Amino acid sequence: MTHEDERPIAANAQDRVTWALRRAEWAVQARKDQRLRPLGIAAAQYTLLMSVHGDPGLTGAELARRLNVTPQAVASQVARLEERGQLERRPHPRHRHVQELHLTGAGLDSLRDADAMIVEIEQRIAGKLGPKKAAQLRTLLDEVADVVREA
């Protein structure tokens, strides 16, 4: 198959802010996976557990929207975490076909252990940047998120 479209890719494509954000995200995710692996938790599972901890009673569909993944991806992770006794489904008080997600005691323990590993990554980043730059970065990233949501 040939591509006859002659439109060039911008010379600075890999210097864009969005590309820099993606490279940083890949690096952080890779480090999270590396640090969490000995605990038997993937970075995606940590994110899911953290989300349920922060907002107990989320449904799988709500969690999928929040994490920007497919409902099937959430269902697969939920099933794994449920098999391990870290997450449980409870009936929704008003909708009989909807199930809410809640951490179990084991899930909270796992989340605490995982979060200790993530704190080390955070501290390394903040230590390299220093307090002022780390605060600026958080502010800038919040602004980026706001701009993208408004678009």
UniProtKB/TrEMBL annotation:
Instruction: Work out whether the entry's keyword set contains Secreted.
Output: no
Quote the Pfam families the UniProt record gives: MarR_2
The record places domain HTH marR-type at: 14-146
SUPFAM superfamilies attached here?
Winged helix' DNA-binding domain (SSF46785)
Q: PROSITE patterns in the record, alphabetically?
A: HTH_MARR_2
Keyword annotations: DNA-binding
Q: Please provide the Gene Ontology terms (biological process) for this protein.
A: response to stress
InterPro entries given in the database record: HTH_MarR-typ, MarR/SlyA-like, WH-like_DNA-bd_sf, WH_DNA-bd_sf
Q: Which GO terms describe its molecular function?
A: DNA binding; DNA-binding transcription factor activity
Q: What is this protein called?
A: DNA-binding MarR family transcriptional regulator
